């Protein structure tokens, strides 16, 4: 819901009354760079902790943290509140960015038979795109202040629904297909350590060597990681500048951004489902 409106909020806070603002582009790019680096470090830790403590427990953290930056802009969108949102967004997004999607896929993998997982992943992605369409469409008919207030309420409702209705997933030793077997992690830890101790350390605090070992353990996984890197490199770079270009060149506001995103969201929903 907030994606079509955040460009207008950023421009109004940093360059009021103008359609062009280099500072807004620079600060948004810096934000995405820091979030990306932080996510690179945090996501393996989130995945390993979800193996140990359960998907539901780890889903609770990013879903709850997402509420706070939205609540700031729901209260006020002046420059001081924008900077508070900006700093808090960086800190929370390093943990939240992508973790809900990844943990949701892991939850589905835990609870859906292997032969039906690809279809289940597609349906889950289609539902996510449908939510994107509904959110951007509602933004089209709401004021900027109402957009952030409603999105904050929806984030809170999501957290409550997840805690009340979502049953917990398989955890730790009950995992049917752990991402790294004990044999594949032998090169990561000291050979003289006990196997149980090695796996416990790996599951709770993966290091950079652990991440490299995981990439080396599977050629398919490494190739998928390379594809994901270059795909997101182009996508994030385009997204970070496109909205500001459209505003500067064609004077777009949140309503036109929402119209454009609804079109792409509908196409994504159909193709993924």
Note the main attributes of this structure.
single chain, 273 residues, mainly alpha, Growth Hormone, Chain: A, 12 helices, 78% helix, globular, transport, transmembrane transporter activity, transmembrane, transmembrane helix
Note down, in words, how this protein is organized.
The protein is mostly helical and 273 residues long. It has one domain (2-167, 206-272): Growth Hormone, Chain: A (Up-down Bundle), CATH 1.20.1250. Helices cover 78% and strands 0% of the residues. The protein contains 12 helices and no strands. The protein has helices at 3-14, 22-53, 55-65, 67-75, 79-96, 99-111, 117-140, 144-165, 195-204, 208-217, 219-250, 254-272. Helix 4 packs antiparallel against helix 5. The longest helix has 32 residues, at 22-53. The radius of gyration is 20 Å and the shape is globular. 26% of the residues are buried.
Average pLDDT: 83
Question: How would you describe the oligomerization state of the chains in this entry?
Answer: single chain
Count the strands? 0
CATH topology descriptor: Growth Hormone, Chain: A
Report the principal-axis shape.
globular
What is the rounded distance between the termini? 21 Å
The number of distinct helices, counting runs of at least 4 residues, comes to: 12
Query: Class by helix and strand content?
Result: mainly alpha
